[in-house]
Write a structure and sequence with these properties.
The protein is of the alpha/beta class. Helices cover 49% and strands 14% of the residues. The N and C termini lie far apart (88 Å).
Length: 513
């Protein structure tokens, strides 16, 4: 009797059919899940990064097989004829010249960090705990309970007694206003730029691109126009302003500078950044907005980047990688750091209690993109195998965190607060030595927004840690929510100078407990 389809299926055990169906369902669920996206992202980046190492041997293998198929006799026949030999040599040389020229043209232009300057404010602007408590109490804007709350946060924040505050704090009956905000901006930005131009010998009129970033202060004319006017820069200088991106703005500026230098030859890019405290000091009683009062302090930095061959010999660093991550599509991440009005209509910046969870998510996504570009093959294989176990075989193992010390020499973690530094250090399995630049920056200068990473790099410089061939990883977190990573290669043993390094008069006292 002929078997019908139903009769055929009836010979297959029921348990086996259910097993196949269950496996297919699990596979479809995996394809539709976030885990599959993570897996395919890692595979794609792995293949893209290692493609040149695979394609080269593949081309040689194809060439060898081709010669073997044609036969060496044909090759010797061509080579023995003088005319054919000349034609063969000319054709081969021309082809190699075309290929070499194409590769040279396609090669991205380098991005050198010639020098950077982290600015130290005036000694009479040091905002110690006593002055901070006195100023907040005499403002008569805070309840007694919130005065105690701010003092408690300040004492646990990790900030020392030598951070810098805005000038209105130190004036009799001083009040935050637009004039005070402009004065603070000019003092911090021009102070950093003056030192940078002096240290590098580059004149303001030689600058081709100018990038200014202050997250919370955006007057008209723009800040970049303010800088152009002060230094009387050229009429054809291309200027950009970055605002609202918080502590991650500095790495956004570096990423923009890299893109500009990739397509414009023989150019200088100057980046200057700070944060305005004057108009962003909160005088209300919403506790989620009081925390920034206890953490944020005045600071600024200036960078000179170039793609000129003549600058390589004097440049300190070369940019290797820049990875930007934004998870603003997630409502919880978007609202984790947000400027709003409190119940009394007073404007301030609110920090969510879920901030550390959001930061951890953004960091994980950023690391997923960075790992294939920096890690050795041994670590990459461990990552891929871990993902396969978790996504394909349903293993409950935790995601494998690579050993970054196998590829990175120095770590400049965003000094946003003690909890932020400790949290990143725990996730990345970093030692106290690795976290020292961030912790000491928080102690000496506080949270200076986008400037913090450059104070941390200056700390490594002052400690004579930066040697030729080392790699430096800067990790920035900011509102949005964003996580941006930049990896630099040290081009020569870096020696600090008093013009640009703010640590040299106090480095002998660090690290502190």
């Amino acid at each position: 009797m002929a078997h019908t389809p139903d009769s055929v299926h009836s010979h297959v055990p029921l348990c086996k059919r259910n097993s196949v169906s269950s496996t297919a369902c699990k596979f479809m669920e995996f394809l539709l899940s976030d885990a599959s996206q993570e897996f395919f992202d890692i595979v794609r980046l792995f293949v893209t990064y290692y493609a040149p190492y695979v394609i080269g041997p593949f081309i040689l293998l194809v060439t060898a097989l081709g010669l073997n198929w044609v036969g060496l006799e044909w090759f010797w026949m061509v080579w023995s004829d003088p005319k054919l030999r000349i034609a063969f040599v000319v054709a081969a040389t021309s082809m190699l010249a075309v290929v070499a020229g194409s590769l040279y043209k396609l090669r991205p232009l380098p991005c050198y960090l010639v020098d950077f300057c982290s600015f130290k404010s005036l000694d009479n602007h040091k905002l110690n705990t006593e002055i901070c408590v006195y100023a907040t109490r005499t403002s008569q804007q805070f309840t007694e309970r919130n005065l105690s709350f701010q003092l408690k946060v300040l004492l646990k924040s990790g900030l020392g007694e030598e951070t810098y505050g805005p000038s209105f704090f130190f004036k009799e009956n001083g009040k935050p206003c637009l004039k005070e905000a402009r004065d603070e901006m000019e003092h911090m930005m021009f102070g950093a730029l003056d030192k940078l131009f002096y240290a590098t010998g580059v004149q303001p009129t030689e600058v081709d691109f100018l990038i200014a970033n202050i997250s919370m202060f955006y007057p008209a004319p723009s800040l970049s126009a303010h800088v152009v006017n002060h230094y009387k820069m050229r009429a054809d200088v291309k200027s950009y302003n970055i605002s609202g991106m918080g502590c991650a703005a500095g790495m956004v500026a570096v990423d923009l500078a890299r893109d500009l230098l990739r397509v414009h030859k023989n150019r200088y890019v100057v980046i200057v950044g700070t944060e305005n405290i004057t108009l962003n000091w909160y005088f209300g009683n919403d506790r989620s907005m009081l925390v920034p009062n206890c953490l944020f302090r005045c600071g600024s930095y200036a960078l000179l980047l170039s793609n000129k061959k003549s600058d390589r010999s004097r440049a300190k660093f070369q940019l290797l990688h820049s990875i930007r991550t934004t998870i603003a599509a997630d409502d919880k991440a978007y609202c984790s750091i947000i400027t709003r009005e409190d119940d009394d209509g007073i404007v301030g910046t609110s920090l969510s209690v879920k901030l550390l969870d959001v930061a951890s998510k953004a960091l994980r996504i950023n690391i997923t993109k960075l790992v294939p570009l920096t890690m050795p093959a041994s670590e990459l294989l461990k990552v891929v195998w871990n993902v396969v176990l978790r996504t394909t075989f349903g293993s409950r193992e935790k995601p494998y965190m690579p050993d970054f010390k196998k590829a990175i020499t120095h770590f400049c973690i965003h000094p946003g607060g003690r909890a932020v530094i400790d949290g990143i250090g725990k996730n990345l399995r970093l030692s106290d030595y690795d976290l020292e630049p961030a912790r000491m920056t928080l102690h000496r200068f506080g949270n200076t927004s986008s400037s913090g990473l450059w104070y941390a790099l200056a700390y490594c410089e002052a400690k004579h840690r930066l040697k030729k061939g080392d790699t430096v990883w800067q990790v920035a977190l900011g509102s949005g929510f964003k996580c941006n990573s930049v990896v630099w290669k040290v081009l020569a043993d870096v020696c600090p100078t008093f013009d640009c390094n703010p640590w040299l008069d106090c480095i002998h006292r660090y690290p502190v407990e």
